[in-house]
Amino acid sequence: MPAGRPLLQGSSELSPILLDPALAGDGTPLARYRWPTPCPRPGAAAYILHGLGEHAGRHDRLARWLAARGWQVAAHDHRGHGRSGGPPAALRQRDDLVHDAAGQIRAYAAETGHAPLIVGHSLGALVALRVALDEAAPLAGLVLSSPPLMLRMPGWILPPLRQLAQRWPDAAVPYPLAPARVSHDKAVVRAFRQDPLARRCITGRLASFIDASLARVMAAAPRLAHPTLLLVAGDDRVVAPAGSRVFAQRAPAGLLTLRWYPRAWHEVFNECPEYADPVYADLGDWLDGHPISLERTGPNSAPRAV
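Above: the chain's sequence. Below: its structure in token form.
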């Protein structure tokens, strides 16, 4: 693992390491994270792509779970998010998030010697699908949680958003995300509300990217070429879960596994134990059934927030 500094003071051996930023193709600094594994001989690699208005550090629970099972785990903050550079939620080019992610995944594959498993949440799941379907980087498989494959917003909002994307593509506007509905775990909600790195806004160009990518990945679903686990929160109030069912119907049946959690909210990996435990159990079972990980240890039960 490259040298870096611990992100948390006085934290455990599985705490994330913050590396020096990587530079995107246009020079934008991208914050990079690594989670050490306690296993003397680490197995396969996983790369996490976070969602809109948040940062990779919010996926620490999932990353620690993977690291405890022997995985090498990495992530970066999207430009305009978290510790990365750029104005909030701003893109210079519409596909910047895809290019940034592909570049970091290629570098991580070279670093570890493994094509990584990509774990994408929400916006990160959409970026992961673009990377996979565009064949932009080597990867071993996909785990997608709550992807925005169908927009949950009134129809009257779309025309002004598209006009914003054309006339003021870099103007950041508040994104109507209710933190109270991301998880039933009140500690998760409280931390999200108080997180200074969480910028709950969107720009016209980013909205345009989501709009265009949604149509693109839906059309390309039959070409999915990697084993994929699709985890869907059935009571999601951030994205429309029905979009995931449509994508699953279009994707090759032998490659995609769909798991539906009727009462879970948007952040299935950050849910309360009642809803998170089945998610982590399903992820563990799926990993055990696919030749991605070279070395796995530990139980399937969901880790608790620390």
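The CA atoms of residues 137 and 282 lie 26 Å apart.
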